[in-house]
Amino acid sequence: MTYGKIDELAINTIRTLAVDATFAANSGHPGAPMGMAPVAHVLFNKFMTFNPKNPDWPNRDRFVLSNCALMRAASCRAGESEMKLNLRGVMSWMKPCFSQLLRFSCVNFIIAGLFLTIPRSSAVNGHGCMLQYALLHLFGYALSMDDLKHFRQVDSITPGHPEAHDTPGIEVTTGPLGQGLSNAVGLAVAQAHTAAYFNKPGFDLINNYTYCFFGDGCAMEGIASEAASIAGHLQLGNLIAIYDDNHISIDGDIKCAFTEDVMARFEAYGWHTQWVQHGDTDLKGIEEAIAKAKEVKDKPSVIKLTTTIGFGSLLQGTGGVHGNALKADDIKQLKVKFGFDPEKTFVVPQEVYDLYHKHAAEGAAAEQEWNQLFEKYGSEYKELHDDFARRVTKALPEGWQNKLPTYKPTDPAVATRKLSESVLEAIYEVIPELVSGSADLTSSNNTRWKKAVDFQPPNLGIGNYAGRYMRYGVREHAMAAMMNGMSAYGTIIPAGGTFLNFVSYAAGAVRLSSLSHQRVIYVATHDSIGLGEDGPTHQPIETLAHFRALPNMMVWRPADGNETSAAYYMALTSKGTPSILALTRQNLPHLEGSTIEKAIKGGYVALEDKEANITLVSTGSEVSLCLEAVKTLKEKYNIKARVASLPCVEVFDAQSKEYRLSVIPDGIASMSVEVMSTLGWEKYSHEQFGLNRFGASGPYKDVYKKFEFTPEGIAKRAAATVEFYKDVKPLRSPINRAFLQLI
Amino acid sequence: MTYGKIDELAINTIRTLAVDATFAANSGHPGAPMGMAPVAHVLFNKFMTFNPKNPDWPNRDRFVLSNCALMRAASCRAGESEMKLNLRGVMSWMKPCFSQLLRFSCVNFIIAGLFLTIPRSSAVNGHGCMLQYALLHLFGYALSMDDLKHFRQVDSITPGHPEAHDTPGIEVTTGPLGQGLSNAVGLAVAQAHTAAYFNKPGFDLINNYTYCFFGDGCAMEGIASEAASIAGHLQLGNLIAIYDDNHISIDGDIKCAFTEDVMARFEAYGWHTQWVQHGDTDLKGIEEAIAKAKEVKDKPSVIKLTTTIGFGSLLQGTGGVHGNALKADDIKQLKVKFGFDPEKTFVVPQEVYDLYHKHAAEGAAAEQEWNQLFEKYGSEYKELHDDFARRVTKALPEGWQNKLPTYKPTDPAVATRKLSESVLEAIYEVIPELVSGSADLTSSNNTRWKKAVDFQPPNLGIGNYAGRYMRYGVREHAMAAMMNGMSAYGTIIPAGGTFLNFVSYAAGAVRLSSLSHQRVIYVATHDSIGLGEDGPTHQPIETLAHFRALPNMMVWRPADGNETSAAYYMALTSKGTPSILALTRQNLPHLEGSTIEKAIKGGYVALEDKEANITLVSTGSEVSLCLEAVKTLKEKYNIKARVASLPCVEVFDAQSKEYRLSVIPDGIASMSVEVMSTLGWEKYSHEQFGLNRFGASGPYKDVYKKFEFTPEGIAKRAAATVEFYKDVKPLRSPINRAFLQLI
Ligand SMILES: [Ca+2]
Ligand SMILES: [Ca+2]
Asked: Where is the site labelled Important for catalytic activity (chains A, B) (predicted)?
């Protein structure tokens, strides 16, 4: 391939669009986009196969923008936070849920009876984002030039639906550093798995590549190191990363903090490495390096591309072009230098459109061909074909939910982490897209069904790429980000385990699961001081409060077997909402009053007493304790109590007010009981019994006793609560609010 | 040095103590301690200088146990969570605070008037911890054999005060993987800085080494990669890490997830690497490697030590000895094999005591000599001597607080991140132990005073080791853990900046700042949707709720200049409590009613009105909005309102009930206003106005308007709140509780 004027023109078009956009925004990151325009041009035009008219084509090549300035660009993918729970139960016994169908497609809230509706924002866009949008625009994705010019305004109709994951051509929500590269590893895992699972002789159905740009910022982040290490171990030959070696980060020259040999490090991880020294101009070198990387099938590849940040600017090669828009004079000289009219903005020469549209047409033809292949595949492998076709709709197989285990109160006490294992064991065959795993805690998290095959490179002799069990190693943060990528690929529902306390290590990526609406399941065992001997460094106190405060996250803390099944039901059917399942290490009895039907409402009455003086509101391991405390309260204090189990407050919040008041009624006091931070429980109770300090090490029963999480410890506090509220009239349930929240 | 029977005996004593302890505990991690006993013996006996009678001797060598099994061992350092705020104001205008002196030295709570006192737990210990305690015991630290045998019981009087940082001989709280190695980097930074700052010709006052054991688990964690990268960059010649290469992690053979070349990776970071192939037996090889590592002055060193996990057990070399105690039969054969009486437990031959006590005596002599040197130093460098002597007491210089800037309402509006910079600029000269820094966001975090010198290896030409400004790179998690280590060293108060949203990346280490009582300051700028254009990926929603739920953490969100100064006053004077300062990107006016004296109470009345119908409770950027809303409320709704500013709820909680009720009084409704998750605000208000969804990108004023964070938006909700509560009698302040929390 030789390169000529047209290529130069296309590259300079990208550069000037980036410059114009950041100037218009009066802020942003023009530098890296300007430096990376040549490789973007070569990659998108010569290598990547995609159809702008159908951004969801399953076998498209994936592109992830992870690097610093470009990455902040990609923050534009940020979206709304509406909870998208699937309350549309398909099981007959879930019919009562039909009426609860959530529709937060606009932001509703009520003020003293007045209903306001704010239209959904669509303008959650960064400036640099403009670059990626510019590329997408040039190729003919559904992004008009006018949209591009106005995308920064709050509530503007910018390209890309406010549900960010719908933005055509953008694969994953990045922005926070290191996430994109880790997402890319997840996308590559998903590709390798999907190919191994579905491809057949003559049907090379899935063979796409995943490309990723990353910079020094990403390279410094621990999450990216974790992801690069596991990618090397997994020999992901379909992953090609391009490292923008521009020597500049926000603090200026990277020699202030970053003098390691990045390529040597990637080699140590098992990557294939190359270096293109003249990344600003050597298009042929770039092409050859990518072509070579594609040929390396048993290793991920990284190409170090030495570029000049802000290429063409008077400030090129300095930190001055990293975080600030160029000055008007600088833009003028740059446009003249690039052969553009210095007086015009947002200019795209027709021949650039033509070149890019031609490539887009080739992509459309490739999809056409693929569709025919897939149809033929259907005639030979009907079951696999139908499975694949179903998966990409995010629908689960008909009747899968009938496999969910149910329990009677007479069944033996079991830890919810074991109950979680029973769910996985029961459903793994009917939900083939479920890919489980753990961050080196398999036997503690109970995340692996007995017949599971590990997802491993076949040459290691310990699994294969069709395997559905991931060994993430001790890499919680990368695990979470990889799961975001795996979910985004479209053919996998990832579940990954660690201790609840160490989900905090992954907080950066967990947040993006929520923001980008990924159906990811965090299996978070050892959920409280109930883990006992490991002590305070492992005992969560703040963790549930943290993730309950995170929008669009379901935090489940089931109390028994039926609630555990309910948690999985909701986690699996809520297509755009991730879940954290907080599970016990210790055994719990099955509750008298629990059913899946009740528990999928997020909260229900576990023990009713119409004459009760108090409602005990509780979750997980403390619900059965509360049921015991009811007896103590009656016997010792002559107080009647009822118990509400609230395994998931986010789902409970989505029920009708009438229902919620039936669970936590007016007229009597209420007290929450959860053996960790009380923060937030004031929303569901008048008083709170919890643990606003670190825990203690010891056998768990001793630890519970130490902090008075005993029937007596609960009862005396409940008695104090009843006494305290007896003079308050009217005594309203905390469910009643003067106005509703912005959610 | 030659090794003989006595060394073998000592090593096997350590091994059998570890075995006995984990057997007595019926759980734990005997494997790695058994494998690492030889190197521990050589290191502690032949290289490390320390005085067991004075574990605080400043120039002692530091040892950090970071690796997997040993590390979980070290989880025993977990401590209580009492808030140790220094409300003992030393400024005359802080006198009112004297009466507020907090004393949570036992866990107090009140139930309906009944006062209970639970003795402080001292048994927050893991099992494997026994190994490190065993070593300390052998050397003569204040740990009796009887204490060792009983250390696992809840509420037992185990060695080491429940305030974990007081446990003699243990330097940092580790447990969660990767933290220890990163703490060690921080300790090494602190050593290099302290040496460069205080050492003079003829006075090599500070020349200690930092040693760290780490394993595969740590090596996989991103935080450890970050820390190792910056350690290489910083050329920390005083840091020697020993990598326990035992091929085993919890999931079994590490080849499931970890096949990279760890030593090549460390070389890429700039470390000096060595390999001792027979780590179980080659004591001479171990000694030579450590000696060589000590000679390498311009690089951190790592020694890969190939060991057999569970050496001596029938299950040696397998995952079976990683997480479980050995069986009784196995222990018997092991003791016979090692020449110990199989019927006896917790045996220490006298000659082992003698050997270790001899080394301890040498350490005591070394301290003696150092003390003389330090005294002589005092006669030649009195100022430096006194500075050093003061620093180690954690006391600040007399009168420093008079430098804190104060503001009048007529001063121009300034962003609190800039006000934070003004504080640093004002105090850096009077608090020489303050070492600031940023995770590659210096110009955004405003963490660098103008004349700051970077902490850098001198040969890079961009700073020196006496420099007080850290360039952490884009490594938030390692930054936090390094700051924990720097604080633990004893001569530094570290402050480090990043965006508030990315403090979440560091959550694992931030939690340990709290648990281990480190005086660490997180300068967390861009604290809300007020950051504007960067959008939802960068706009914190759940972050403050998360860290407010974390015990022993002060979360400050100052509203203006005086509150910012107050936040620094409390952060710097609270010797055992870390702080997060959440600071705005946007400008804020100075409040009419703010003073440092008021703000250090954590909450105060910013605008009083004795006839008010409602209290608006707010923080940071929303306080001035509330003051505007008061006018709207009066004009449009004829409602009188008062405003309470609560810059730090943790400190506010520590005030007397009487005071708190004066801020949020009985009889009128209250509404919180904070532009992020409402979770937790129910504790201080009847209704909450916040943002329980992700934000939006755009100029910040537009974003505030979109979500109705305007005087009108606040006023109409306040009006709804007043209306809603008008029939409730008595209308109690939420400050009133039926019983107090466990803190
Ligand atoms: Ca860069
Ligand atoms: Ca290991």
From this structure: 29, 322
Last residue of a domain, one of A311, A334, A362: A362
- What is the reported pLDDT for A326? 81
Does a structural domain hold residue B742? no
Cβ pair A260:B72 closer than 8 A: no
Over the range B356-393, which residues count as b (16 or more CB within 10 Å of their CB) and which as e? beebbeebbebbeebeeebeebeeebeebbebbebbee
The DSSP H or E segment spanning B177 is none
Distance set, CA B443 to CA A25, A251, B418, B498 (Å) = 20, 7, 10, 10
Higher pLDDT, B665 or A17: B665
Residues B172 and B232 in one domain: yes
pLDDT digits (tens, 9 = 90+) for A640-690: 999 999 999 999 999 999 999 999 999 999 999 999 999 999 999 999 999
* Chain B contact set for A261 (CB, 8 A): 268, 270
Task: Calculate how close chain A gets to B501, using CA atoms only, in Å.
Answer: 9
Q: Which of A82, A367, A476, A687 is catalytic?
A: A476
B556 and B638 belong to one structural domain: no
Domain-located, residue A284: yes
Residues 42-71 of A with CB under 8 A from B: 68
Of A124, A258, A695, the CB nearest to B536: A124
What is the ipTM score, two decimals? 0.92
Alpha carbon of B469 to ligand 1 centroid (Å):
21
Give residue B215 CA to ligand 2 midpoint distance, Å.
Answer: 5
Question: HSE on the CB side for A568, CA within 13 Å?
Answer: 34
Separation of B221 CA from ligand 2 center, angstroms?
A: 12
* Contact status, residue A72 vs residue A128, Cβ threshold 8 Å: yes
Within this chain, do residues A531 and A618 fall inside the same structural domain, yes or no?
A: no
Q: Within this chain, do residues A575 and A621 fall inside the same structural domain, yes or no?
A: no
Number of structural domains chain B divides into: 3
What is the distance between the alpha carbons of residues B740 and B596, in angstroms, rounded to a whole number? 28
Q: A147 falls in which pLDDT band (50, 70, 90)?
A: confident
Residue (of B638, B617, B603, B623) closest to B719 by Cα position: B638
Residue B431 token pair: 């608090």
10 Å Cβ neighbour count for B489?
26
Which residues in A lie closer than 8 A to residue B26 (C-beta atoms)?
A: none
In tens, the pLDDT along B154-165 reads: 654 332 223 345
Q: What's the average model confidence in pLDDT over B70-85?
A: 32
Q: Residue B219 CA: which ligand is closest? A: 2
Give the residue numbers spanning the domain of B528: 400-588
Predicted structure pTM score: 0.93
The answer on pLDDT for B61 being more than 90 is yes
Chain B nearest-CA distance from A167, in A, is 15
DSSP class per residue in B318-373: SGGGTSSPPPHHHHHHHHHHTT--TT--S---HHHHHHHHHHHHHHHHHHHHHHHH
